[in-house]
Amino acid sequence: MSGLTNPIVLEQIQQQFPDAVLSASEPFGLLTLELKKQDVLPVMAFLRDAPTLDFGFLTDICGVHYPDQHQRELGVVYHLHSLVNNVRVRIKTFFPEKAPKMPSATKLFAAANWMERETYDFYGIVFDGHPDLRRILNVDEMDYFPMRKEYRLEDGTRTDKDDRYFGR
Amino acid sequence: MIKQKPTFVERPEGYVGEGFFATNIEKVIGLARANSLWPLPFATSCCGIEFMATMGANYDLARFGAERLSFSPRQADLLMVMGTIAKKMAPVLRQVYEQMAEPKWVIAVGACASSGGIFDTYSVLQGIDKIIPVDVYVPGCPPRPEQIIDGVMKIQELVKNESLRRRQSEEYRHLLASYKID
């Protein structure tokens, strides 16, 4: 074991990018950083390429929607894993709902392709530079982004369900 | 060991004489069709597991003449839809139905196929009768094999009593037109 710990990872990032980290915490021992939008890709490239860190595995990308956070309603969460050191890191970034744009990570990790399509499919976050940004799980004809909180979860075409019988 | 005489299907109404039997051709054809259905199992989830039990030795759908499953829609008579149909699966199911030759029947097995079941959500079709006509609905989540067999027997009743001209009737054409199937 190389003995790479969360404080070392954080220190290395802060050395390289002094202003990038907005906040850092360790819920359940997982180093979680909130970064400025424009710093996400450079930091991920650094985490991947620095020989002592070696975060070569992009585990997950997902979206998140907090309608009450003014000017930072939408977010993207990245999970990276250093297989060599067995350390994980979680990177979050937030931006306004009006401008749901994020640079694509497909140049860094090929795995980002489908994950970004999924995030676009459910949250409508547009990844600039993605080679083929279209829906992946939902039907192509769907005209909204179902995981956004302003849409109801239920399907509108249900006919056998009378709200009166369900206490609504 | 219980010894039981094998049972046969009932003879239709007709005139019996010495060495001959006269009846209605419609009834003979209905009888033949009802007892030699070729089901196409369209199993997408847990109801499909119940169907496997239904085809197994304990319940044995083969007793009803439905021994031979057809995994091609072109030779199938009975489309058995068992499980949740996601909206993305809907065009596939519709194409399978369209490829079946007349006469054809559809049975929706389980709550999901019948109405969407517990999945009242953006990604799930709220019952297959939104895209194809259905003859028999089997309730349950999932239904037991006895219920599936009961549903198949209801289909057999429909098949037996269907008029030979039904598929050419104006009513039937309207039904297909309402689903935009031609």
Q: How is this structure best described in words?
A:
The complex is a heterodimer of chains A (168) and B (182). Chain A has 168 residues and is an alpha/beta fold. Chain A has one domain: NADH:ubiquinone oxidoreductase Nqo5 subunit (Beta Polymerase, domain 2), CATH 3.30.460. Helix content of chain A is 20%, strand content 26%. Chain A contains three helices and seven strands. In chain A, strand 1 (21-25) and strand 2 form a beta hairpin. Chain A is elongated and about 60 Å long. The N and C termini of chain A lie far apart (56 Å). The mean pLDDT of chain A is 91. Chain B is of the alpha/beta class. Chain B has one domain (38-178): Rossmann fold (3-Layer(aba) Sandwich). Chain B is 34% helix and 14% strand. Chain B is globular. The N and C termini of chain B lie far apart (54 Å). The mean pLDDT of chain B is 91. The interface between A and B is medium-sized, with 14 and 13 residues.
Secondary-structure map with pairings?
The complex is a heterodimer of chains A (about 170) and B (about 180).
Chain A: H1 6-16, E1 21-25, E2 31-35, H2 40-49, E3 57-65, E4 74-82, E5 87-95, E6 101-103, H3 112-123, E7 126-128
Parallel strand pairs in A: 2-5, 6-7
Antiparallel strand pairs in A: 1-2, 3-4, 4-5
Chain B: E1 14-17, E2 20-23, H1 25-34, E3 39-43, H2 46-55, E4 78-82, H3 90-99, E5 105-109, H4 110-115, E6 136-138, H5 145-161, H6 170-178
Parallel strand pairs in B: 3-4, 4-5, 5-6
Antiparallel strand pairs in B: 1-2
Keyphrases for this structure?
heterodimer; A: 168 residues; alpha/beta; Beta Polymerase, domain 2; 5-stranded mixed β-sheet; two-stranded parallel sheet; elongated; B: 182 residues; Rossmann fold; 4-stranded parallel β-sheet; two-stranded antiparallel ribbon; 6 helices
Mean pLDDT of chain A: 91
Oligomer: heterodimer
- The CATH H-level superfamily of chain A is NADH:ubiquinone oxidoreductase Nqo5 subunit
State the distance separating the first and last CA atoms of chain B.
Answer: 54 Å
Tell me the number of helical segments of chain B per DSSP (H or I, 4 or more residues long): 6
Radius of gyration of chain A from the CA trace?
Answer: 19 Å
Separation, N- and C-terminal Cα atoms of chain A: 56 Å
Low-confidence stretches of chain B: none
Which CATH C-level class of chain A is it? Alpha Beta
- Look at the helices and sheets of chain B and give the structural class: alpha/beta
What order do the SSEs of chain B take from the amino end to the carboxyl end, as H and E? EEHEHEHEHEHH
Beta strands of chain B, count: 6
Strand content of chain B: 5-15%
The fraction of residues assigned to DSSP E strands of chain A is: 25-35%
Helix content of chain A: 10-25%
Largest sheet of chain A: 5 strands, mixed
Low-confidence stretches of chain A: none
